[in-house]
Amino acid sequence: DKRQHPTFFRTIPSDHHQAAALARMVKRFGWTDSDYGNNGMTSFLKAAEEEGICVEYSEAYYRTQPSSKLKRVADVIRRSTARVIVAFMSAGDMRLLLQELNQQPPAPKQWIGSEAWVTDPQMLRFNVCIGAVGFAIPRSVIPGFRNFLFDLSPEQALTFPLLTEFWESSFSCSLKRQKDSSTSMPGCDGTEDLRALQNPYTDTSQLRITNMVYKATYAIAHALHGIICNEKQCEKNIKVEPWQVHFLIMEQLN
User: Which sequence ranges form a coiled-coil region, renumbered to this chain (predicted)?
Assistant: First the structure.
């Protein structure tokens, strides 16, 4: 709400825009039946109604709900006569749904996906959603990011629990063996090579949301620099107001 938060900026487009675009896609191809899966449902159903699209049913599922709920949603899809399913879900929730549908595949459907899962390479292993289409945030390359990831050392990985877990699971060795004798894994010896790995961590070709956050961070950093620094020096004790950051960011965008 720009009236309550006039200086608020998003790092990625609002899901309201995506929901409207999905509804227009359904109309463009002449599809009149669809299913829509979670909290983008209201936006999509409103847009679908405005576009004159018939919606046979809508179901919501969250991974924290019991498995009986997931089975019920899958059964609704199997019994439905709808030819097209719009799934507005996170990648994790979508993966669980496809796993359930794979046990008893429904008749072929045209899946339309939200950006959260439609670009996830793990979805390629599910025949149920072959031919899925959707909208996605453009992928991009962040200069120097790949080399930054590959330059990670065991010592650096040990300073962050998430990196420690990643390193140990990737190389099947323990960074904490000397401190924790309870582990059965051998200790890492420093010869582990990140460049030899083939996993999502080392794949920097699909940087979508990451790139948006990267650009947003730099936009704010440049705005702050413009406020506290001049051609000669920077004033560290200056009080920065939100409207000042907002003004300079808008200048950058224009």
Answer: none
